[in-house]
Design goal:
This protein has about 290 residues and is mostly helical. It contains 15 helices and no strands. It has helices at about 1-10, 30-45, 50-65, 70-80, 85-100, 115-130, 135-145, 155-170, 175, 180-190, 195-210, 215-230, 235-255, 260-270, 275-289. The chain is elongated, with a radius of gyration of 20 Å. It starts with a helix and ends with a helix. The model has no long low-confidence stretch (mean pLDDT about 95).
Length: about 290
């Protein structure tokens, strides 16, 4: 569940394109069906590589809705065009094919050894195509997706650090804008490894980066991750102050969060305040319905 929270903050990042066609205005990750319609409208007048890229995103919209078979069907139909296609089109095709085999939207039981091997192969292919074509944003995206294949924390840390190195060294905005999401992912892997101080450092850096942007939800997630780690470090009062602020902000926005309520329940239990802990436990249950 927490992994889904992290994944949601990276979707807008990996929609970006500094290449043939700007996909960002067409994506609404809260409504993949609406996004599909936008891509199809753009496809009506698109030619060449732009048409291929748009169809890879239509495939992705199906994957986000859990229809991986339909996504693969669309990508399969594009294969005859790939030998004459440009770098971006080929990299995106491989990347989206990988997402049909392993991604955050896949149920755990579908992530078989065979599916992971297929995903790993095409993600690495996407990475190699993107790196040769100096498309750093897509290269970072491919590496970041490998963490959904190799799910041991040490492996996720390795992929995250490799992706971050590219993002930091690149002059391309499409790669640079990945840094906050990658630091969140690295922090999460470090947390899973019990390296809480290092995780906290990554999450704090992610907060600084998120605060420079306009994505309020991503900012709140970044602050939540800091508080989550502070609780693990037994810095209860600091964690509590952040979670209470997030509760107030979300209440004002009409968007209460079960994640925040859960942390507040745990924090008040740690402080021995059973009444407040029970209160937030009930709010967590009601908000999760």
């Amino acid at each position: 569940m927490l992994r889904q929270l992290l994944f949601a903050t990276s979707l807008a990042t990996n929609a970006s394109s500094a290449m043939a066609i700007d996909l960002s205005p067409l994506w609404n990750f809260d409504d993949p069906g609406q996004s599909e319609q936008r891509f199809r409208a753009a496809l009506a007048t698109a030619t060449g590589d732009d048409a291929i890229v748009l169809q890879t995103q239509i495939a992705r919209s199906y994957g986000l809705r859990g229809d991986f078979a339909k996504a693969r069907e669309i990508l399969k139909d594009l294969e005859p065009q790939l030998p004459g296609a440009g770098v971006e089109a080929r990299a995106r095709h491989a990347l989206e094919l990988g997402r049909t085999y392993a991604s955050a939207t896949h149920p755990q039981q579908s992530l078989t050894s065979e599916a992971k091997e297929r995903a790993r192969a095409v993600y690495k292919q996407a990475y190699e195509i993107a790196r040769r074509g100096e498309l750093d944003g897509l290269a970072v995206d491919a590496l970041h997706m490998l963490a959904f294949v190799d799910t041991e924390p040490a492996d996720q840390l390795r992929w995250g650090q490799e992706a971050l190195a590219i993002a930091q060294a690149s002059p391309q905005p499409a790669a640079k804008k990945w840094e906050a999401s990658l630091r969140n992912n690295i922090g999460y892997a470090l947390y899973q490894l019990g390296r809480y101080d290092e995780a906290l450092d990554q999450f704090k850096q992610a907060v600084v980066l998120r605060e420079k942007g306009e994505d309020v939800q991503a900012q709140r997630v970044a602050h939540w991750m800091v508080a989550w780690t502070l609780r693990a470090l037994n810095r209860t009062d600091e964690a509590l102050a952040i979670q209470l602020r997030l509760e107030r902000e979300r209440a004002a926005a009409g968007a209460p969060s079960a994640y925040v309520f859960e942390e507040l329940e745990l924090l008040y239990r740690a402080k021995g305040d059973r009444e407040r802990a029970d209160h937030y436990g009930e709010l967590k249950k009601s908000s999760a319905k």
